Amino acid sequence: MGPSNFRLLVVDRTGLRGPLAPALRDEAEKRPRAMRALAALSRLAPGGLNLLGLEAGLDDRGEFFAKSRGLLAPVMGRKIADAVAAAVRKRGQPLLERDGRLIYSLYQPPVPSAAAMKVLGSRLVKERTGRPWPATATLQVTTHCQMHCYHCSAARHRDLARRELSTEELKSLIRQTEALGVVNIVLTGGEPLLRKDIYELIAHVNPDEANAMMFTNGLLLTQENARRLKDAGLFSVYVSIDSSDPATHDRLRRVPRGWERALAGVERALHAGLLCGISTYADPQRLRRGEVMEMVELARRVGVHELTIFDLVPTGALLREGERALLTERDKQELCRLEDEINARPGYPLVVTQAHVNGPTGSGCFAGWHQFYATAYGDITPCDFTPLSFGNIRENDLATIWRRLIGHPAYCTHSNHCRMQDATFRQRWIAPIPAAGPFPYPAERLTPEPRAPLASQRPAV
């Protein structure tokens, strides 16, 4: 597969377009005469005038390269091309190469791709403006599920008196999500495969804008369904497995033979050619008893590409558990150590731990910074674990709700750790929520009060 050309900055009669446009639009407005001239010139170029682009691909050794193209290439193209190449090299070894693209994680767009170039533009916007941008959107497409998991974070959102989003409403949400800058659209539930239109929704995700990803319990991953997911354009699928011990998994999920059926679904997904991972969680007891390492070995034996180990977050039925269910800082350090150790071993899946990714050694809390969550009824919350609503897409457009979210006192600064595991945050914003809800609880009902910021926070704007 030869190199691909990506247009990063284009001008047409409407102004600047492309992944770099939001970062440079303010500067362009300071030069109205030059912009008018470029807009006039763009009428001669189909699709607009290419100011800056990249020719990117893999060389004969399978290594990434990038060359600048466009009118601004002599001025700033080399800097952009070098920055992209350096960012790719920094990722280390890819999981695999597929169709002339390098895949580094089931959560990230392959390199090179239009969605990966979109990440570049979004990061530049953040660096130049200080504004957070959502890289990931988790869309709960249904609350219905065959399982009744004790620890389910979505169970509190279920309200049989409310109507779930229709196919057209979800399609509109997907388009708004892509326009906001998201590059990873995660479809979840409940059980997303219970929606008959799930394949239509997956196909509606524009692969040039974002990956379509799914979390499932695996029970409906039949051979036919796995093939249909692949044909619809699903980038990756994660199957949730709570334990390497079948009896423990089935007890927590309250479904007979759930473990056996979930692993059979994993095998079918892999056979269909899907990128497939296993998601699990760690609590203090599981970690100290060695059960997390047993899950790593299970993932290796099954042959999945990736294993995500989430922290046990007190939410759902555990919302009132507080600190009793939390990992200690020493526990998290051990998880980070385990991640580094396993990822240095050949023949193992990539291990991703929330302790690292959402901790001080990673990117910190994604909620309301790089991520948002939409319930099946259209409520927008900072993440799937946070029972606070900042609006509903049936009443406001997504961009308006996102601005409201990032301007809220609880989210206008960046936290270097998961807020839902922070005692100060929980006391201020979670404890006052009435036991009867509603869930998610409208954030505007909680009156802001002066308080000390969480550790290592910095202004978002």
Protein described:
It is built from 15 helices and 19 strands. The C terminus is likely disordered. With 461 residues, the protein is α/β, with parallel strands linked by helices.
In short:
With 461 residues, the protein is of the alpha/beta class.
Q: Regarding quaternary structure, how should these chains be classified?
A: single chain
So how many helices? 15
Describe the global form.
Answer: globular
Q: Tell me how many strands there are.
A: 19
Q: Which whole number gives the mean pLDDT?
A: 90
Topology:
Blueprint: E1 4-12, E2 15-17, H1 21-29, H2 32-42, E3 49-58, E4 64-69, H3 73-90, E5 96-98, E6 101-103, H4 114-129, E7 136-140, H5 167-180, E8 184-188, H6 198-204, E9 211-216, H7 223-232, E10 236-240, H8 246-253, H9 258-271, E11 275-282, H10 284-288, H11 291-302, E12 306-311, H12 329-343, E13 350-353, H13 354-357, E14 371-374, E15 380-381, E16 388-389, H14 398-406, E17 413-414, H15 423-430, E18 441-442, E19 458-459
Parallel strand pairs: 7-8, 7-14, 8-9, 9-10, 10-11, 11-12, 12-13, 16-18
Antiparallel strand pairs: 1-2, 1-3, 3-4, 5-6, 14-15, 17-19
List the main descriptive attributes of the protein structure presented here.
4-stranded antiparallel beta sheet; 461 residues; disordered C terminus; globular; alpha/beta
